[in-house]
């Protein structure tokens, strides 16, 4: 099957948002309950994200015992979740919130439980609402990736997109208050 991940040639110009995190700064959690980066997600991945130069994001993740798939190694689905969340921070450097419409992961090496994964993700381009991103995961040497991810995010109006589902969040009241602010 043909992949829908093809970066178009006619890309739009992009600028870093003036209020985006500065280089080296920890990036704000988009949702404290997020399974990827939320500090209040008890079972989540607890990714720590940092803004890089231009449109880059770096992140670290401790490969905890609860993430096991094969004996002694990370579950592939857990790793794809991590890629989703790390690459998903790139739109925030540009400005708009965006959700994943396409995600693919190439698994290159087994990743041991107990290791610390490091991620580097970058923008490949934007066309209208679509934001194309690439990420690599490594165990200390970026020239020796253990996995590579590609994703497409589509920008959304947060208030409209989550309107029908917000009430299901344990933080519904907090979000309603945030969203009612101009
Ligand atoms: C103030 C309070 C703030 C609260 C903040 C809280 C959360 C913030 C939200 C975002 C998160 C921020 C940071 C992110 C961190 C982590 C990332 C994790 C993100 C996820 O884990 S999120 C879960 C999984 N995700 C979904 O739950 C999406 C389900 N989906 C939809 O809800 C619709 O699909 C939607 C609305 C996205 C689009 O629908 P739509 O009707 O508005 O627009 P349409 O269909 O026209 O698509 C527009 C253009 O995208 C192209 N397109 C569409 N799909 C494509 C595909 N698969 N491949 C290639 N291109 C595709 C079309 O071809 C067209 O392209 P063109 O430019 O050519 O027109």
From TrEMBL:
EC numbers, comma separated: 3.1.2.2
Q: Name one Pfam family in it.
A: 4HBT
Record InterPro entries: HotDog_dom_sf, THEM4/THEM5_acyl-CoA_thioest, Thioestr_dom
- Give the location in the cell: Cell projection, Ruffle membrane; Cytoplasm; Membrane
- GO molecular function terms listed in the Swiss-Prot or TrEMBL record: hydrolase activity
Q: Which family does the record assign?
A: Belongs to the THEM4/THEM5 thioesterase family.
Protein name as annotated: Acyl-coenzyme A thioesterase THEM4
Q: Which organism is it from?
A: Gordonia aquimaris
Q: What is the lineage of its organism?
A: Bacteria, Bacillati, Actinomycetota, Actinomycetes, Mycobacteriales
